[in-house]
C-alpha cells in the first residue's frame, strides 16, 4: 500500500462489494453446496469431452481416474489436478471402496465392458454412471440394475439429450397438447464409420454395429418424442460392405415401431451414410423438426409455431449438473436417465435384432 488513496480504497472495499454482490446473477455467486465427486473410467474420446465439459459444472467435479494407460493417467492428473491416491487401473479399482473422496464412477469404455465394470463399481458402494448403450442386451442391463439396487447406489445412463433445452421444449409442447394427437415420428441417426480396426466394428467389444452406437438415439428419441412405449417393431438390414461390417456388425438397419395411441415411427440407423441426424414429429395440430437432433449441437429446430430458441450449453455440462442433482438432492428429471430407462432401450434393440433375423414383427408388450 503506497498512498492514502489506496488505504481509503481498501477500507471502503467491503462496503462497495455488498451492493455489487446483491446485483450478481445466480451463476456468478460462488457455489458452496454439495458436490458429486466423480472418477472417470476409460480415458478415451468421449471421456475427454465429458471431462472438459465438467470444468463448467458447479455440482459435479472430476476427482479420480481409472485407466489401463499410465501415460493418460499422468497427462490427465496434471491437467485436472487429480491426486495420485485417486488413480486406479482396471485390476485394482475395487479399492475405490475404501476411498472416501470418490462418490461415483462414470464408465466410458467399450460397450461390452459396461456390465462387468458397473457391477464391480456397485460392489464398492459408489454410484454408477454408464455410457450408452448401457449393456449389450436386456439381460445384462437387468443384472446391472439388480446389482445397483442390492448395493443401494444410483445407476444412471449417459443420455445427454434428456436434458437438452430444445428437446425439452418439444416435450413440453407435446405434453401441453400443442401438437395435438401424435401420429408419426421419424428418426434418422447415422454417420460414415472410419477406421475398420476400431472397437466399434468389433462385435465382441461393441455387441453389434450402428444400432448399438447411433441407432440407439432413434430408439430413445422415438420414445421421448412420442411419449409412449412401443408395442412392436419390424426391421430390415442392408449391408453394402460385408468386409468392413462383418457378421453381427450391422451397417444399416431401418426399423418401424407401433405405439399404444396408434402413433407409428420409422427410423434409420447407419454406419454407412453421413449427415443423418434428424428427428421429425408429426401431430394432428402441428409438427417439430430438429436437425441436428442428437449431435453435440447446437441442436437446431422449429415447430409449427416457429424456431426453437432455447440457448445452447455443452450437453455434457448440463447432464453432469443434473446427474449431481439426481444423486445428491433426489431430483426427478423430466425424462428419466436411470437403469430402467436404459433397459427399455436394450429390450427394443434386442427386438430389432430379432426382427432383422426372423423377418417378422416382434411384439414388445
Ligand atoms: P474410445 O475408444 O475413444 O475410448 C474408450 C476407452 O476405453 C479407451 O480409450 C480406453 O481408455 C478404454 N478401454 C478399456 N478397455 C478397452 C478395450 N479393450 N478397447 C478399447 N478401449 C478400451 O471410445 P469412446 O470414448 O468413443 O466410447 C466409449 C463409450 O462412450 C461407448 O460406450 C460409447 O457408446 C459411448 N459414447 C457416448 C457418446 C455420447 O454422446 N453419449 C459419444 C461417444 C461415445 P484407457 O486407455 O484409459 O483405459
Structure description:
With 365 residues, the protein is an alpha/beta fold. It has two domains: 36-160, NAD(P)-binding Rossmann-like Domain (Rossmann fold, 3-Layer(aba) Sandwich), CATH 3.40.50.720; 161-310 and 337-363, Dihydrodipicolinate Reductase, domain 2 (2-Layer Sandwich). Helices cover 36% and strands 22% of the residues. The chain contains ten helices and 15 strands. It has helices spanning 4-22, 45-54, 70-80, 114-124, 138-151, 165-175, 203-206, 210-226, 315-329, 339-358; strands at 36-41, 60-66, 87-88, 104-107, 127-130, 155-157, 182-192, 232-238, 252-258, 264-270, 272-283, 287-290, 301-303, 306-307, 362-363. The strands form two sheets. Strands 14-13-12-11-7-10-9-8-15 form a nine-stranded mixed sheet. Strands 3-2-1-4-5-6 form a six-stranded parallel sheet, sandwiched between helices. Helix 4 (114-124) runs parallel beside helix 5.
List the helices and strands and how they pair.
Elements (H helix, E strand, L loop, with lengths): L3 H19 L13 E6 L3 H10 L5 E7 L3 H11 L6 E2 L15 E4 L6 H11 L2 E4 L7 H14 L3 E3 L7 H11 L6 E11 L10 H4 L3 H17 L5 E7 L13 E7 L5 E7 L1 E12 L3 E4 L10 E3 L2 E2 L7 H15 L9 H20 L3 E2 L2
Parallel strand pairs: 1-2, 1-4, 2-3, 4-5, 5-6, 7-10
Antiparallel strand pairs: 7-11, 8-9, 8-15, 9-10, 11-12, 12-13, 13-14
Helix pairs in contact: 2-9, 4-5, 5-10
The chain binds NADPH dihydro-nicotinamide-adenine-dinucleotide phosphate.
The site of NADPH dihydro-nicotinamide-adenine-dinucleotide phosphate has 22 residues, from α2.
CATH architecture of the largest domain: 2-Layer Sandwich
| CATH-defined topology of the largest domain | Dihydrodipicolinate Reductase, domain 2
N-to-C span:
76 Å
Helicity level, as a percent range? 25-40%
Low-pLDDT runs of 5+ residues are 1-21
**SSE order:** HEHEHEEHEHEHEHHEEEEEEEHHE
Name the hetero compounds present: NADPH dihydro-nicotinamide-adenine-dinucleotide phosphate
Please report which band the strand proportion falls in: under 5%, 5-15%, 15-25%, 25-35%, 35-45% or over 45%. 15-25%
Q: What's the alpha carbon Rg, rounded to whole Å?
A: 23 Å
Number of domains: 2
What average pLDDT do the residues reach?
94
Amino acid at each position: 500500500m503506497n498512498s492514502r488513496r489506496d488505504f481509503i480504497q481498501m477500507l471502503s472495499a467491503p462496503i462497495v462489494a455488498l451492493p455489487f454482490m446483491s446485483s450478481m446473477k445466480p451463476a456468478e455467486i460462488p457455489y458452496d453446496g454439495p458436490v458429486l465427486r466423480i472418477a472417470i473410467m476409460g480415458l478415451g474420446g468421449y471421456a475427454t469431452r465429458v471431462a472438459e465439459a465438467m470444468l463448467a459444472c458447479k455440482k459435479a467435479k472430476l476427482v479420480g481416474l481409472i485407466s489401463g494407460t499410465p501415460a493418460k493417467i499422468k497427462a490427465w492428473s496434471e491437467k485436472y489436478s487429480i491426486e495420485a491416491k485417486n488413480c486406479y487401473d482396471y485390476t485394482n479399482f475395487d479399492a475405490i471402496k475404501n476411498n472416501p473422496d470418490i462418490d461415483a464412477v462414470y464408465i466410458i469404455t467399450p460397450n461390452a465392458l459396461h456390465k462387468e465394470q458397473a457391477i464391480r463399481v456397485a460392489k464398492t458402494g459408489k454410484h454408477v454412471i454408464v455410457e450408452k448403450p448401457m449393456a449389450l442386451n436386456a439381460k445384462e442391463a437387468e443384472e446391472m440394475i439388480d446389482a445397483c439396487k442390492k448395493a443401494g447406489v444410483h445407476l444412471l445412463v449417459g443420455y445427454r439429450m434428456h436434458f437438452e433445452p430444445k428437446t425439452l421444449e418439444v416435450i413440453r409442447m407435446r405434453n401441453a397438447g400443442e401438437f395435438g394427437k401424435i401420429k408419426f415420428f421419424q428418426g434418422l441417426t447415422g454417420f460414415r464409420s472410419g477406421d475398420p480396426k476400431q472397437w466399434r466394428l468389433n462385435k465382441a467389444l461393441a455387441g453389434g454395429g450402428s444400432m448399438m452406437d447411433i441407432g440407439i438415439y432413434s430408439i430413445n428419441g422415438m420414445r421421448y418424442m412420442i411419449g409412449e412405449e412401443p408395442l412392436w417393431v419390424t426391421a430390415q438390414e442392408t449391408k453394402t460392405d460385408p468386409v468392413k461390417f462383418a457378421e453381427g456388425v450391422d451397417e444399416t438397419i431401418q426399423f418401424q415401431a407401433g405405439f399404444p395411441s396408434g402413433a407409428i415411427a420409422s427410423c434409420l440407423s447407419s454406419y454407412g451414410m453421413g449427415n443423418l441426424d434428424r428427428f421429425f414429429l408429426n401431430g394432428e395440430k402441428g409438427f417439430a423438426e430438429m436437425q441436428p437432433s442428437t449431435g453435440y449441437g447446437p441442436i437446431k429446430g422449429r415447430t409449427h409455431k416457429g424456431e426453437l430458441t432455447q440457448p445452447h450449453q455443452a450437453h455434457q455440462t448440463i447432464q453432469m449438473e443434473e446427474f449431481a442433482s439426481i444423486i445428491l438432492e433426489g431430483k426427478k428429471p423430466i425424462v428419466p436417465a436411470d437403469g430402467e430407462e436404459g433397459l427399455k432401450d436394450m429390450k427394443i434393440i434386442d427386438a430389432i435384432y430379432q426382427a432383422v433375423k426372423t423377418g417378422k414383427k416382434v411384439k414388445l408388450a
